[in-house]
Design goal:
alpha+beta; five-stranded mixed sheet; 10 helices; 13 strands
Length: about 450
Amino acid sequence: MSSGNGARPPAIPGSLDRLRLRLTAWYVGTFFAILTLLGIGVFAVITWRFDRELDLSLGQATAELRRLGRADAADGLRIPERTLFVADSAGRPVGREAAPSWLQQLARDASRRAGRATAVHTESDRILRANAEPFRLGDGRAVVAIAVADEIELEDRYAALIAAFGAAALFALVLVAVGGWLLARQSTAPVERAVAHMRRFMADAAHELRTPLTVIRARAEVALQREREPEQYVVSLRGIERETERLTRIVEDLLMLARADAGERPIERRRVFLDDLTSDAAETARVIADRRSVRLDVDEFEEAAVSGDPALLRQLVVILLDNAIKFTEPGGTVRLGVRSQGASATLTVSDTGIGIAPDQIGHVFERFYRGDPARTRRPGRDGSMSEGAGLGLSIAQWIAEEHGGTVRVESEAGRGTRVIAQFPLAAADSASSALSSS
C-alpha cells in the first residue's frame, strides 16, 4: 500500500538564506543600538557622578582653607592632586606672584556673590575644574579660597573601565551575530520545511494531473484524426471517461488534503460503531474484490464504539480495503477484523499481496509516494492498467489522527501487508452527544 512518488523535495530558493542574513543583521543592529544607548547612558551617568564627586572634593578642599583662616593657608596645606589658592576680592593671589586670568575672574565672581562659584577651563591638553568660596581672615579682610583639579588626570582612571566596556560590547556583538544566525536558522526551519513540502506537493500534483489530461487529449486527438465506426468512438469515449474519473478522484483527494491542512474540513463528532461502518464498507469493497478475483474474508468482528465522523471513518476503511485489494494478485485473500481491546478499538486489514520493501514502509504515508512501480498499477474496468495517485494512505492517516487514532503498516516484500488502525473507545455515556465541528 503506497502513497507518493518518492521524488526528492525541490531545492529551497536562496531567499531563505537572505532572510536569515537579514534577521541576523536585525539582531546585531538592534543589539548594537541597545549597547550604544546603554553606553551613552553609562557615560552620562559616570560623567555626572564624576563631576558631582569632584565638586564635592573641591568644596571640601576650600572648606579646609576656610577652616585654617590664614592668608598663607594655601602654602602650608597639601592635598593630593589639588592646587590651592587664597586670593583677595580683586582676584590677586595672596603670597603668589600671579594667577591665570580665569581664576582671578572666578575669585571676583565668588567675592561679589558671597557664595560658592565654579568654573571649567580648557587648555590644549588639559581640562581644569575650580571651586571658589569667600571667607574672612582673622583681621577681617575678605578673601577667597580656591581649589583646582585637573579633570584629564582623573578621567584617565576611567579609561580602563571604558576600554573594558568597549571590549565586552564588541565580544557581545560577535556572540549576538553567531547566536542570531543560529536563531534565524532555527526560526526559519519550519518555514523551510513548509516551503519544501508545498513545492513538492505542487510538483507532484501537477505531475499526477498531467497524466490523465495527456491521455484524454491523446484519445480525443486519435478519435478525431479520421472518421471511425460508432463502436470505435464508444471505446475512445470510455477511455476518456475512465481518465476523467481518475482526474476527478485526484482533484477531490487534493481538495480534501488542502482543506485538512488549512483546518477547514468540518468534522462531525458523535458516537458511532466502528464494526458497523466497517461491515458497510466491506460490502462496497466486495464488488471490487470479486471483479479482481480476490477473496474478502471477515476474521473477527467485535462491537467497538468510537467518537467521530461516520463518513470519514467509513472512507478510511474503504481506502484500506481498496489498497489491500489493489495490491493482491487474483486468487489472493484480504482479511478484515475489528476488535475492542482495553481502551482502544482496533481495525485490521491484511492481504496476501506483493508486500512492501522494508526501505519503503517509512514512506507509504507520504503524499504521492508510490515506491515500487509494480505497486502503482491495477486493471481498469476494461482490463487496461490504471495508476493510483498515491494519496489514499495520506488521507487515511489524517482521518485517524483527527480522531485521536493511529495507523501503522506491517509488511514483508512478497508475503503480504497488514495495516492496523487504532482509535480510542467512546465513553459509554456519550450516546446522545451533540454534533460539533473541529
